[in-house]
Amino acid sequence: MSPEAAPDRRQGHAVAGDGAAPRVGILMGSDSDLPVLRQAFEVLKELGIPFEATVASAHRTPERVARYAGSAADRGLEVLIAAAGSAAHLAGVVAAHTLLPVIGVPLKGGAAGGLDALLATAQMPRGVPVATVALDGAANAALLAARILALKDPVLRERLEAYRQRMQARVEEADRRLQEELATVAAAVAPATNTATPAAGTLTATAAAAGAPAAAAAPAAAGSSAQPGRRGDHPETGEERPATKEHPGTRQEMAS
C-alpha cells in the first residue's frame, strides 16, 4: 500500500455496526451537518449495514479528504456518502480520489437556501460522477447505498424488501386512520342533513302540485293544435265549409 493510500490513523473514524468492518463511509464538511446525517445513520442501522463517519472539509482539510477517499477501497469500504452545503465540493473531491460509488448529499442553508450546494454536487464534469440526492436527503443516500450493496448481498436484499413492506404498512395504517376520521365526521353531519330534507321535499311537492294544472293543460293545447283540419275545412280559419252538391244533370252531360 502506497503512503498516499494509507489510512489516516489520526482521523479516529466513528464506526457503527456491531464490530463488523464498515461497508459505507460517510463524510461531512462540518459537525453542524450531523443532525441531517443522523437520518443516514438510522437507516443504515435499521438495515444492519456497518458504517463509519468522519468530519472532513474539501476546502479546510483537502489532504485529509484525499487520503480518506484514496484509502477507502483498501480499507474495505464499498460506498461513500459525502454531505456538504454552500460551495459543496466535498462529494466531487471524494469522487476524484476513488473509484468507489460516491453519493452526494447537498445541504440546505446559506444565502441561496441550498441551491448552490445542489448544483455544485450534481454538476460534475464528465469522468467524475456523483450520484446526487435531494437537499438534506441523507436517508435516501443511505437507501441508495444499501441498494448498491444489495446487488451482491441476498440477505441485504431481503432486508430492503422488508423495509419497503414496513413503509407500505405505515401508509396503509395512515389511510385507515383517515377513513375512520372521515366516517366519524360523516356520521356527525348526517342528522343535520336528514332534518333539512323533509322541509325541502315539502316545498318541492307543493310547487309541483301548484304547477300541475298548467302542466296538464299544456299537452291538451298542444294536442289540439297538432290535429290537422278535416277535409273541406277552410285552409286558414279551419271552419267547416258546406259540402258541394253535384247537379243532377252533370253526370249525364259528362257521359254524353
From TrEMBL:
Pathway: Purine metabolism; IMP biosynthesis via de novo pathway; 5-amino-1-(5-phospho-D-ribosyl)imidazole-4-carboxylate from 5-amino-1-(5-phospho-D-ribosyl)imidazole (N5-CAIR route): step 2/2. It is an enzyme of class 5 (isomerase). Residues 210-222 have a biased composition (Low complexity). It catalyses: 5-carboxyamino-1-(5-phospho-D-ribosyl)imidazole + H(+) = 5-amino-1-(5-phospho-D-ribosyl)imidazole-4-carboxylate. Residues 230-250 have a biased composition (Basic and acidic residues). GO terms for molecular function: 5-(carboxyamino)imidazole ribonucleotide mutase activity; lyase activity. The lineage of its organism: Bacteria, Bacillati, Bacillota, Clostridia, Eubacteriales. Keywords: Coiled coil, Isomerase, Lyase, Purine biosynthesis. One of its GO terms (biological process) is 'de novo' IMP biosynthetic process. Catalyzes the conversion of N5-carboxyaminoimidazole ribonucleotide (N5-CAIR) to 4-carboxy-5-aminoimidazole ribonucleotide (CAIR). SUPFAM superfamilies: N5-CAIR mutase (phosphoribosylaminoimidazole carboxylase, PurE). NCBIfam families: purE. Residues 22-171 form the PurE domain. Residues 210-256 are annotated as: Disordered. This is N5-carboxyaminoimidazole ribonucleotide mutase. The gene is purE. Gene3D superfamilies: 3.40.50.1970. Residues 157-184 form a coiled coil. It comes from the Bacteria. The keyword Coiled coil applies. InterPro entries: PurE_ClassI, PurE_dom, PurE_prokaryotes. Substrate binds at residues 30, 33, 60. The keyword Mitochondrion does not apply.
